[in-house]
Amino acid sequence: MRANLHRHLTDTPADVRNLGILAHVDAGKTTITERILYVTGTTYKRGEVHDGTTVTDFDSQERDRGITIFAAAVSCAWDGHRINLIDTPGHVDFSDEVERSLRVLDGAVAIFDGVAGVEPQSESVWRQADRYGAPRIAFVNKLDRAGADLDTAVESIRARLHVTPLVVQLPIGRENGFVGVVDLLRMRALVWADGRGTCEEGPVPDSLREESRRRRRLLEEAVAELHPIALEEFCAESAISERTLAAALRDLTRTGEGVVVLCGSAYRNRGIEPLLDAVVSYLPSPLDMPAVRGSQDGTEQERAADPAAPFAALAFKVSSTATGRLTYLRVYSGTVEKGETVLDAGARRTERIGRILRVQADRHTEVDRAVAGDIVAVIGLKTARAGATLCAPAAPLVLEPPSTAVPVVSVA
Ligand code: GDP
């Protein structure tokens, strides 16, 4: 199933999301990662009744756990997109390794505890992501816990992170009775009530209709205040359409003027599918990111995420595994094929790319090539160290140290 889903994906940078999950220890990063890998291996589709293929398979979850702990990046497929989950630290640490993991992601999900809200540690992680201009969405986790409250957590996001929260869901039920959310864009209810973690879509329950309308209005007002096109529509029609709202939320995410807030309970597998939908809708693809800069012999160069440009990649992690010496690459421009010779530009040494692997939830898949925007692991590099730039020998380039540039805004 997973391999099939991956095979259907094309090598289009626009369909890639390089995602980090940022959280302080205990907020639920491991649980959410596991749930994402599990959910993306299923046949979830909006509004469809399931055919029984999504029953929790604890064996595969255990496998996921093993790989997740050791991999620097894991790929999964969602709604025609490839999501590369990059392992990021759970603690504040300015080591080179941490800096490199933040550098290679294009966007992040920040996890908050539904009881504690923003804690000092989550604030530090947030600020660290600020330095890289990484667009974020927020996920308020553990809504099933006693004392959990989305509104309180949202207020702590506003007060402590100094960013406007754009709440796109209304929880259905509280604490132990938390069963789902109202999607305030589509005004539909998503409920995980069958005990298997599968998501079913339906109309907003009568008891929540008025509150959902009120919350939708609040969302529209908040968006109109920040986004000129949304404001225009709001003034002309005294409402904002779902389409304009979605486009505005995407823009505001990318500029960091607002943060889309979703909620759920990773432990109970509630809220993961809409979170993945939000990742695909709001977080940028490699094409939305500014071109990377580098230099060779004093000459400045720029490289855009174009598969046809000369190859340039950053080796961001090297690890020894049973499969061999794995070098994780973020490809910034061009295409690299297995068997190709590349230049380690800093060391001025050529090396051969042996095999190219995509690390998935429960396996490695060998691929023939990797293109701009993608993250893969390669086997065969003998000396390239983490932090090295690998590039086409005919177009040498050393990538600049991490930049703090904010991404390009695309106004729909
Ligand atoms: P990490 O340190 O951020 O990776 O956090 P973990 O995923 O290991 O979670 C920390 C603890 O919180 C574990 O005991 C989890 O079982 C628990 N946990 C994670 N998500 C939830 C949730 O949604 N609800 C509840 N009640 N507990 C959760």
From TrEMBL:
Signal peptide span: none
Family: Belongs to the TRAFAC class translation factor GTPase superfamily. Classic translation factor GTPase family. EF-G/EF-2 subfamily.
Places the protein is found: Cytoplasm
Superkingdom to which the source organism belongs: Bacteria
Keyword set includes Lipoprotein: no
Function summary: Catalyzes the GTP-dependent ribosomal translocation step during translation elongation. During this step, the ribosome changes from the pre-translocational (PRE) to the post-translocational (POST) state as the newly formed A-site-bound peptidyl-tRNA and P-site-bound deacylated tRNA move to the P and E sites, respectively. Catalyzes the coordinated movement of the two tRNA molecules, the mRNA and conformational changes in the ribosome.
Main location: cytoplasm
Full-protein positions shown: 1 to 412 of 699
Organism: Microtetraspora malaysiensis
Tr-type G domain location: 14-287
Primary gene name: fusA
GO terms, molecular function: translation elongation factor activity
Coiled coil: none
Keywords associated with the record: Cytoplasm, Elongation factor, GTP-binding, Nucleotide-binding, Protein biosynthesis
List of residues binding GTP: 23-30, 87-91, 141-144
Name used for this protein in its record: Elongation factor G
